[in-house]
Amino acid sequence: MDFADSDTDLAFRHEVGGWLDKALADVPDQEELTQDEREHWSRVWQDRLCAGNWAGLSWPTAHGGRGMDALAQAVFNEEAAVRGAPYPLNGVGMMLAGPTIIAHGTDAQQARHLPGILRGDEYWCQGFSEPGSGSDLASLTTAATRVDGGWRINGAKIWTSNAHNASRCLLLARTDAAAPKHEGITYFLAPMDGFTVRSLVMINGDTEFNEMFLDDVFVADDDVLGGVGNGWTVALTTLAFERGSMALNLWVWARQAVDRLIDVAVERGVADDSAFVDAVGALQCDAEAVRIGSMRMLGESRAGGVPGPETSALKSLWARVVQNANRLAVQLDEAGGVLVDGDGAAARMRRYLRARAHTIEGGTEEVQKSILAERVLRLPRSR
Amino acid sequence: MRATFTQEQQDIGRTVGALADADRGTARAAWSGGWRAPAGDGPLLRDFGLLGVPEPAGGIGSSLIDLLVAVEALGGRLVPSRFPAHAAAVQLLCGDERSGGPLPDEVLDGRRVLTAAVDVPGSSGWADAVPVDPLVRTLVPYAAQADGVVALGPAGVWFADPVRVTERQSLDPSVPLADLTVAAPERPRPAGTGPLRAALVVAAELCGVAQGAIDLAAEQARTRRQFGRVIGSFQGVAFPLAEAATARKAAWDLTLYAAWAVDTGHPDAGVQVHAAKAAAGQAAVFAAERCIQVHGGMGITMEADPHLFLRRAFVLDARCGRGSWHRRRAGELRIRARRAVRG
Ligand SMILES: Cc1cc2nc3c(=O)[nH]c(=O)nc-3n(C[C@H](O)[C@H](O)[C@H](O)COP(=O)(O)OP(=O)(O)OC[C@H]3O[C@@H](n4cnc5c(N)ncnc54)[C@H](O)[C@@H]3O)c2cc1C
Fold it and tell me: What is the band of A310 on the pLDDT scale with cuts at 50, 70, 90?
């Protein structure tokens, strides 16, 4: 077992670092910005990634990508995150839509959708969750009925990140109400022209996600991905890419959360208190476990394996470190975090509140545990 | 980067696992009549003594991870072999490549069984600071059953002559523990990374103990029925076991990485080892506690096995620097590193 970069890995890391340093030269620290400013830089950053030919880094060359492996993508994301790069505004396109279309799309669909993602002129969102269907995603009720040349879709989606910037949606809808719940679902690459998108304010005041209303929205047959009734299988592919891409960034965010916490403690003169030192010791264990676990996961996938249920353990650990570090950081504030008129205090509280979502988004903590119980411990299904 | 087990490491895990399977139940046997060498003890000491030993110390290029894979397999079955304690003592001697030269053949081929004297009474850390009585050590495993002692002190490591051995009553009778008074060293060698290496041997065994406890608990959760269904179908039962599995995975990943960091002279090695030892102790104790809980009343009996995992977990967590001490060290080093970056 070897955790060192190979010479090729090192050379690539160097190339990436050189590019990033230049591309990030005029980009401010995202942590202190308003949401509008952050979205602005996310868009700028997406454009730079596309212009630099990084958007399809781990896509096959046949589809316009660079044909590099998951580890290269990990190295890129790691180097970007370490430098505090913005989050690219079309992450869903690059990390979920592209790979899913490559896996399940027809030649025509690939030709139609992939170039737009690589060029950065079509942004995507993920329309899976519904008001009545979150953890139990397969119970979704957004209904697609057959019409001439395609489908007429009615229903509501919710918690859709970045829908306000997207023009295409990875949309799950029920095409056969009579079939068993996993079999009646179809996956659409839906244009969002007829969608009504309303932003939702999160507990920290940001508006990252939305609700979407679909009233008689028409989607053509050409935009069915992976065949009518096969939506659940295709959705699982997307969710697997979502889990796979997680490991590429998570550990950096965990480490940064701990770094920021220590900075606050140093500033407040409590960094040597034994209770604080012990807390950092515990956070360090979890944060490093995320990093090392990610490396092992990438090692397995490089050796030809697929990421297993361990990704659920990594996600759990990551959420815990970031939540705990951010909570401690606000608690160290002068007034225990409750006076938020200073910039620093407000930013810390914003991060803490945002981190509460980490045990909900991308599959809740409880769902991760039930995956571990079933697939690692071989216990019966409990959901 | 090849962050996967090599073929050889997988083979070691399988071979030692098979030896350990044959010795299942030997930890319980120590409750009647005290510790006896399990059948695998001799073969382990004889055939696996070169695992993890660096070449200057007489090794054949086997990595520390090789050794830890073997020790983890033993921990999972609670095999009370002297091998892990012997290996920890050997590793204690392997921390400074420039001093000492090769270890004696009879140590490497297991004819001379060693144990490590690292912990100081009344202190939760290992003996790298000047203790009150510099020559007393505690929590020394298999002291009466070993042929030699390797001691750690502020001046370094040395083959120590025990002046007095006081057998203590161990929480885990399959791991006899003693207090030792050793003679002052004549020419100690620099400890280097020796204490880190020894601590990782203990961490690996803890990861094994955690895994064994989780396996036993999951087996119970899959088979015991109440309210007309197996209890593992209740989330109140299943989720804590999932947490135990997560903690155990974290601890094992930390341990493997720390071993790699020590072997390759990575500047981070210290903080990594402290994190690994702390996490491994916590994971093992937590898993064993959950294992007792899942067994209900049966878990509270001497007759059932869960308490054996808890006892071993406690003994190992306390040895080679207590888990709580390692956690604090990890915190201190992490804060220091961040301060250095910020200037
Ligand atoms: C910031 C953020 C961004 C998001 N972005 C997107 C997006 O872009 N696209 C998208 O489709 N979705 C998105 N989501 C939605 C997310 O996937 C869902 O919120 C999540 O799957 C949970 O569904 P829910 O909110 O309906 O909660 P519910 O499923 O109603 O869960 C409520 C609580 O009950 C628990 N629970 C439910 N079932 C069980 C069970 N069987 N056993 C034990 N506990 C259970 C849950 O763990 C949770 O604690 C986002 C969510 C957030 C917070």
Answer: confident
What chain B residue is nearest to A309 in terms of C-alpha separation? B246
Determine the straight-line distance between the first and last CA of chain A, rounded to whole angstroms: 37
CB-based contact, A360 to chain B, within 8 Å: no
> Is A203 a pocket residue for ligand 1 (Cβ < 6 Å)?
no
Domain count of the fold of chain B? 1
Cα A251 to Cα A151, A322, B328: the distances in Å are 42, 10, 22
Question: Are B339 and A266 inside 8 Å of each other by CB?
Answer: yes
> How many CB atoms sit inside 10 A of residue B84's CB?
28
Q: How far is CA B327 from CA A131, B96, B225, B282, B293, in A?
A: 43, 25, 39, 10, 26
Pick the CATH number of A249-376 from 1.10.3720.10, 2.40.50.140, 1.20.140.10, 3.30.450.50: 1.20.140.10
User: What's the DSSP call for residue A336?
Assistant: T
Whole-number pLDDT of residue B228: 97
Report the distance separating Cα A191 and Cα A214, nearest Å. 12
Q: What is the pTM of this model?
A: 0.96
| Among B334, B189, B193, B192, CA closest to B262 | B193
Question: pLDDT (tens digit, 9 = 90+) per residue, B255-283?
Answer: 999 999 999 999 999 999 999 999 999 99
Residues of A in Cβ contact (< 8 Å) with B274: 281
The answer to whether A242 is a known catalytic residue is: yes
Domain extents for chain A? 7-119, 124-235, 249-376
Tokens coding A347: 């930013």
Q: Residue A360 Cα, ligand 1 centroid: separation in angstroms?
A: 5
Ligand 1 pocket, residue A204 CB under 6 Å: no
Closest Cα in chain B to A304: B4
Q: Is the CB of A128 under 6 A from ligand 1?
A: yes
CA distance B144 to chain A (A): 36
Range(s) of the domain holding residue B323: 194-342
Q: A381 touching B, CB under 8 A? A: yes
The DSSP bridge partners found for residue A160 are: A210
Residues A50, A66: Cα–Cα separation, whole Å: 12
Task: Check if A318 has its Cβ closer than 6 Å to any atom of ligand 1.
Answer: no
* Cα separation values, A107 from A53, A62, A149, A237, B141, Å: 22, 11, 19, 18, 67
Q: Across the interface, which of A368, A372, A379 has its CB nearest the CB of B222?
A: A379
- Residue B330 belongs to a domain with what CATH number? 1.20.140.10
Length of chain A in terms of residues written: 383
